[in-house]
Amino acid sequence: MFTVVVVNAKGGAGKTTLATNLAAHYAQQGCKVAIQDYDSQGSSSYWAQRRPDSLPLIQTIPMFEQASGLTASYAHQPERGTEYLIIDTPSGLDPIQFRPILSRADVILVPVLPSSIDIHAVSRFIADILLKAKIGRETEKLAVLANRARKNTLIYHTLEKFLASLNIPFIATLRDTQNYIKAAELGMGVIDMQGEQLFKDHKSWRQIMAWLQQKEQAVSAASADAS
Fold this sequence. Notes:
Helices cover 41% and strands 17% of the residues.
């Protein structure tokens, strides 16, 4: 099971947007997908409840809820045969407390907004992941994305320069567009929507999915060598 954790300690960075769109993309490929929703707001879980029956099913696991009638460990597990697990984390996440999950992730994705406050906050957060949670760069599992960005603006270029300086893969830029809001309201990902206005968004997601495919192949190769 290939596991992707979406993290950023600051609220409003777009963790749920990234998590739900990732899940939608894998589901469109005919894969069995689950989202573990650690955010007490339950945004990913709410999104999945609104998902049309005509689209591939995505299991959502509200990790913030107490299981009743079953042990929590059982109730919070993905269904048998799940191929992709997406973990949507809460704001204010403590990298040390969350270290077991970060350690077993195959990929850790950090969405970053183009603002000076967010750039400052994420620089400290990434440092905590690397140093306190001890997720070293050598694991090559950590990557960043620019979210709700408008290219050709001064703050975007500042963000772009900052992300490049981290020596961590900067894999894509998600546009500042209403398409993500519309998709979220319908329980869909942008991949589920059609139209010329989605061309640039689909292009960004092809970049993300291509990078993830490379990581998945590397993980599979490493597992094969270990066995």
